[in-house]
Amino acid sequence: MFKRLFSAQVAQHVRQVPHMPPPYPLPTSSRGAERRRLDDMHFGIARYMKGLTYAPLKNPSRILELGSGTGAWTIQAAQTFPSAQVTAADMSPLPENLDLPSNVKYQQMNFLNPFPFKPASFDVVHMRFVMIHLPKPQEVLSRLASMLRPGGWLLLEDVNHTLLDANNEIGPGVRELYKGYQRHMERQGVNPLIGAQLRTMLEESKEFSEVNESVIPCYMNPRSTSDPDLQELGEILKYSIDGVYVGIMDKVGPAGGITPEILRAWRNEVNDPSRDLRIDMHMTWSQKK
């Protein structure tokens, strides 16, 4: 069991979320199993990266996280930069009783609506595993860039939601699960493979003086790598991804393209020691012109 570094108190004054929220297929409550899943994932990634980001941040004064979830990244940012004002934004409230640092405030909002922030008002904008749930990602990227001051950093991080096998053809369980999952996401107008496209989108936007990317392979089988840090990260991502598919199955039912039988077959193949399965996580950091 991974450590829970943060306890819980929520901000008092929040805006109501407008109608027609983003097509997010998972439970939106940051409590119970979903909170544990999100926290474990954040702490695992932070341990692997040895910090918040690979970007060379230097004393930012205003930081925005869009898709704050349980508040884990936001709180770590506030503790790392205690002189900065850090804003956590999400369509769902932060967990109850969250002990927020004094330099954190919370904004409840729908990312499909205009952002309630002035242009060029942040030094850092962070978004992890959110672009995959938003339609028209190029437009979203332009809106994100507009909130950055010149020299500010946009931190976009996402996955390619498909498994690759270095040694074999993908098995029927994995193939059928991703066929259903990707079909469901495409019906929502979002791109489940956005992770691998982030760098190209950032470069083509012409908004940034530099675009950087690190592709982190998250191995489902610890025997696939001798790196203990990658072994730990792969284990965390494997169980987190499993939770994603359980959440989709529970929330959208058979229309989500994932049945209990398909999920069992996927699990059998993911845990097969003869396979070399991985999912790639794409971490980008780009500096505004």
TrEMBL record:
Xref: InterPro entries: SAM-dependent_MTases_sf (IPR029063)
Domain of life: Eukaryota
PANTHER family: METHYLTRANSFERASE, RHODANESE DOMAIN-CONTAINING PROTEIN
Name of this protein: S-adenosyl-L-methionine-dependent methyltransferase
